[in-house]
Amino acid sequence: VLQRDELYSQSMTKKVYNKLSEKAREYLASQNGVILDATYSKEENRKRLIDQLHTLDMDASFYFIEAQAPD
What we know:
By secondary structure, this protein is an all-alpha fold. It has 3 helices and no strands. Helix 2 (10-29) runs parallel beside helix 3.
């Protein structure tokens, strides 16, 4: 069982976002829409995702939606 500090480490975050990108590209390549439910709170992660999705050479729109709720 992974400890909290391992689950939220930079390396684990990168692994998770890479897997999300991989799966998104698979679905988009087969002409399916995709919603990725992740924070993408850092610009570098959003940029990496967009760069990876652009490798598909398809006409697609990408939207990042930020939702905030009061405590």
